[in-house]
Each structure stands twice: as C-alpha cells, then as structure tokens.
Amino acid sequence: MTEGVLYIASGKPFVKEAAVSAARLREFMPHTPVAIVTDVAGVKTAGTPFDQVIQADDSDRDFGDQIRYLEKTPFDRTLCLDTDIYLDAAVEDVFEVLNAFDIAAAHNQDGSAYEVSGVPDAFPEYNTGVVAYRMSPSFRAFLEEWRDYYTELASGENSQNQPAFRKALYESELRVATLPSEYNTMVRYPGHAKGPVKMFHGRLLDINSPGAGKYIDVPKAAATINSTEQHRTWTLLGGLQLHTDKRDSPLHKYRLRAQEHGIREATRRAISKIWSRTADDQ
Predict the structure, then answer these.
(1) Order of strands across the sheet with 241-244?
(2) Whole-angstrom distance, CA of residue 91 vs CA of residue 28
(3) How remote is the C-alpha of 161 from its chain's centroid?
(4) Which of 4, 138, 148, 255 is placed for a possible disulfide with 33 were both Cys, Cβ 3.0 to 4.6 Å?
C-alpha cells in the first residue's frame, strides 16, 4: 500500500509555487514521496523536492485540471495539495483517516461559491485545496460524476470546481471524512483555531491566476497564528491581528487570583512577575 503527496501544476508559475510548498513539506515529512502532475515540459526530479514528475498533455489550465489529473496519482492513498499550501507540521495522520474513509477534505472557509440544485444547505461545500483519497473503482466513478457536473455547472465567473465537487460528493456512496479546519486554514479570511494549525492555504508566490492572489505573507501569518495553541481568532483589518481567549489573558488570571487570594496578594504576585521578566530581559 503506497502513500504520497500529489501536486497538480498547470503552467510554470504553479510549478515554481508547488516546489516552494513541497520544499516546506520536506521539512516535516522527509520520507513521504512527492509527485507532481504538470503540463510543463522539462520539469526534473534532480534538484527539486519532487520524487516523480508525471507529464500531462491535455491541460485546459482551469479548475477542471484537478478533476482530470487526480487519477494520475502513482499512489494507492494520496494527499493532493494545491500549490499554495504551506505546512507547519507533519500530516501523515491524514493517511490514517483513509483506513476508514474513501475521501477527506475540510469545509470551505468562505462558504459556498454558489448554490447548486439538489443539495441541502446542511451539506457543506468542501475546499478542494486539500483532498485525501483512496484510489478505488468507486472513487474513479466519483471522478466521472464530478467531471460531468463541472462541465454542466462551470461557466464564466462560476468556474470553480468546488460546487460540482459538492454535488457529486452528495450523490456518491463514498465515505467522507471532514478534516478539521486546522488542516486547511485559508489565511486570507478571518478565522479561528484551537491547537496548532498544520496546513495554511494562501498564495506563496505572486501569480496572476483565476484563483486567489497573493494577499498576505503566509509564512509570517503562520508564525503569528501558531505563536500560541490556545483558542484564538484573527482578523485582517490593518494586517493580520491575533485575538486570544480572555481566560488566558493576564487580566483574567489576575482576577482569578484576586478571588482566591485577595487583591493584595494577587497584586503582589503580578508585580513580582513583572519585575522577574524585567530582570530576565536585562
């Protein structure tokens, strides 16, 4: 049973971005095989983070390429990543999910791109930037349905493949695992996390593409968001602003000590901590 990571990159800019993403992945998962499907000729494994290059000659350079190329994976169990995924932890445990499920993805943080008929609001749209799947006859049948719905639904501004993915998934017999948002956090939107965020989703290079542009420095955003593992939210007005749980704030801790030990003792301890930190910084 083989397991590995797959990138799909149509065009040279996306190959370059995939290399940035894969190099970061190598820091946490050095022994996990990495393959890339691309229509760019001459991409090599030597000097790159890719173990295998799979040539694609029928690219349309649109969101349909992902549907077309998922079945080109050389692995039995695959974690397919968009080229703009930035890892901040190892994620081999995603492969373990495929012991019990056929496919795994996280909810689309931006909600539904647009509504599709026959799918209730209670069944969410999943983001296809991080998709783990087990290759099987039922999964191949799902790909055919996804491709057909994409052909039917995608047009003009509504060119994304996620609405078709949602409809095909709802009608399929696949067992679907929902990944936590920490496995696909889109940093261009406000968000929430508890514990370490493992995969960040945001443009790593400044690429002119039909998808999202480069709105934020993803490595810096990842460092800020993962500076703590407690409950936190973030907003993007005036740059990324992190907001932590009030229960872990110094003021809240002071109030708890005051209730337990009295204001005088709580104040004494607070002043002692301040002096201690000042001395350490000198």
Answers:
(1) 191-193, 232-235, 241-244
(2) 8
(3) 16
(4) 4
